[in-house]
Amino acid sequence: MTQPPPRNGTFGGRIGRTFQQSEPWWPPTAVPPGAPNVVMVVLDDTGFSHLGCYGSTMATPNIDAIAAQGLRYTGFHTTALCSPTRACLLTGRNHHAVGMRCISNFDTGFPNMRGAIPKSAATLAEVLRDNGYATYAAGKWHLAPMAECSAAGPFTNWPLQRGFDRFYGFLNGESDQFSPELICDNHAVPQPRSPAEGYHFSEDVVDQAGGFIRDLTSLVPEKPFFLYLAFGAMHAPHQAPQRYLDKYRGRFDAGWDVEREAWFARQKQLGIIPPDTELAPRNRGVKPWNELSPNEQRFAARLQEAFAAMLEHTDDQIGRLVDHLKQLGAWDNTLFVLLSDNGASQEGGASGILDEMRYFNGMREDVDAAVLRLDDIGGPNSHSNIPWGWAQAGNSPLKWYKQNTHGGGVRDPLIVRWPDHLAEAGGIRKQFCHAIDIAPTVLAAIGIEQPTEVASVPQMPVHGTSLLPTFADADAPIARGPQYFEMFGHRALVLDGWKAVSRHKAGTPYDDDVWELYHLEQDFSECRDLAQAEPERLRQLIALWWQEAEKHGVLPLDDRGASEMFRASQRPGMPTARRRFVYYPPVSHIPADACPSPARGWHTTIELTHPAGAADGALINRGTINSGFALYLRDGRLHFDYNCFHTHTRAVAREPLTDGPHTLALDVVRQDDGSAQVALRVDGTLVAEAVIPKLLFVLSSLGMDLGRSNAPINDDYQAPFAYPGKMHRVVFDLGEKASRGEIRAVMRTEMARQ
């Protein structure tokens, strides 16, 4: 008599009363024979022409070498924004359909904007892991609601819960490259070394990714892997080691007009664009270079130098990754995909910006003052972004930028390398394709059928189409229908080589939007508007856009202003939807989206027991060297420092703190003129006062630590600067309500963390 199969799954053997009467059975391997490794490298805010192999004169030799061995796609399109494109890449579905209308920071209460991918849209990692792959993610995630990214979770939308075996990187849309907010798997970790010791995130993340693969190859070499490597580069802040910055000194002094023309000419020489392509005119708001003041030119050129230095440094890290794969014998059996998530960024504004948080606080960059800090640009003491003129150069020959549905926002580089599976090395593919096509392509290349059910959850249809036929045939047609675009009300639709597109002004009726019409096969750069010549075709494409919007969950269109979005993010249950915050140290690093607001003024009390002897250290540390505040002990005395873009307001106690139990109090009281009164108290006694000239609405994008520092906010100390005493309780009490300035600032910040 045999027993029934185990309840935990199918058993193909036989279970008798004894071993001799039984037959063992093991499930067959799910890995297809000869399955390749898959490496997907995602660059941030990298425009169509930024890579050397796509036209620029900036140095990207390692990427160029990969392209020379593989294929470059010139018709690859994205969503124009970070989180949505990444959702498309990993699911093969359109971004509205998987709840990622814009960045994951928001949940508007509608299915198209939950800030998280539903289980009905399994990620590529989930599918590959079910088919025997090891799965690793490293770098930027930005596919979980920011309210869920603290140590309190929930962890449902973190990488390990969406199919990845290991993760190392950051969860937000941006991070300081010298002092990032690091997550390893499901918990925060300190960075392994300081900037002074040579730390840079791009190097660290390649080290960690290489370690994941090395462990696997050493222990289970027959198991293939999927590595999703998403650099923080080229998103602001543009930061690189000094030797890279030095290399580009003076390199862009001729300006963006000259450089853009040179890149445009190189694109034609390389065959990246058709020979009859027109260079799009300057975008509105971009001045001719020769009309800039000398200081404006110096500032803009130095910002572009930092961008170029960071790009070359990133390229070198990609080269190091390739070396890792070669050393492990994995390179020749790896399907390698490299792409950008959207076009070059417009978030640096017309003049560019040295300290990005100035913009979020409604503070205009003073270029004449900024040039006094030129040597800070690109290093730890800056948080810079390029001006519009350089962004448009990076999108050459196209118009507009990231966030827009014109070519400058949605047409991006895509490189594929797969030895022995491509028709020719260095080929160019011109077919229209989209980020939703990447996951189906990977599965088709491996030989895995798209599952209809994952983890017992029925799956929604995949919207993308495999590009595999183009690997073997440059002229292979791709069987796809219309592709819609929508971002912040900007809309477009592409079908059979024609594109209808509109720019939307927030707050105006959508029916008032002006639509343009381009024949992409004859007008690569969208310069010749045929709306007047082909009104019926345009009408049909607009009507089709509405049909596709209905089909893919694009509706409702949403261009609400800052206050509405902010209030939606502050609904009950959110970590910042309260006025009192009580912490019981030690606690994990607190990301910015879970921190008490610094905008309204606050009252903080700290209950601690101070040890005898030397006992310096950080009690509260919020932000970085570029902006933030800290309450700390140095030389035994209590210090408060408020850093407003390198302008410091300090309050320092005269006497050292005695050993034993104490209650410390910090009052920051906002005044009607935007300043703030500061008072420090020890056991109720006033020990120091100060006046902050301007209390910022938004501080650094990096969060807060208690009892230690993730990054210093001044030169008095270096991370981790751990406090050796015992902190029992820390309480923040905030002002009653958010001001209009705070609401606007928070909205600007969230929109730029892309």
Tally of DSSP β-strands? 29
Radius of gyration: 27 Å
Please identify which CATH superfamily of the largest domain we are dealing with: Alkaline Phosphatase, subunit A
Largest sheet: 10 strands, mixed
Mean pLDDT: 93
The share of residues in extended strands comes to: 15-25%
**Distance linking N and C termini:** 63 Å
- Overall structural domain count: 4
User: Which structural class matches the secondary elements?
Assistant: alpha+beta
Can you identify the CATH class of the largest domain? Alpha Beta
- Which percent range fits the helix content? 10-25%
Uncertain regions spanning at least 5 consecutive residues? 1-5, 749-754
CATH architectural label of the largest domain: 3-Layer(aba) Sandwich
Task: Please give the order of strands in the largest beta sheet.
Answer: 7-6-5-4-8-1-9-10-2-11
Count up the helices. 16
CATH fold group of the largest domain = Alkaline Phosphatase, subunit A
Overall 3D geometry?
Answer: globular
